[in-house]
User: Fold this.
Amino acid sequence: SSGINAEWPLRPGNAIKKQALVITDNSSFNDDYCFELLSLVSALSGSSKGCFNLVLHDTLIKDILKLLHLGTKRVQRQVILLLRRILAQISPEKLCGITKTVIPTPPYGECNENTRTVLK
Assistant:
């Protein structure tokens, strides 16, 4: 049996089968890969300089926002942690440009005399 075990990895067909077994579960593989990448990006966002550099990349922010919607719960938690760190560094105008939205204009965000009610 020791001769078979020593010979097994040397056969080309067995190496291919071994790789196929590792990558057959794509959803788990993709989840682990995304989580590890987000962990690295989160580590970069831990410093002010790293956070500043992350904010410069619009496509990265757009992809992170997509993962918030499409990722697994574990990936979503990592995305939320990352967004809590970097959103303070992004101007509202830049975020609107990335997400292709507009900033609402007043009086939507303000309280004016016509909308106030007096509690008696």
About this structure: Helices lie at 2-7, 12-23, 26-44, 48-55, 58-70, 73-86, 92-99. The two ends are 89 Å apart (CA to CA). The chain has a mean pLDDT of 78.
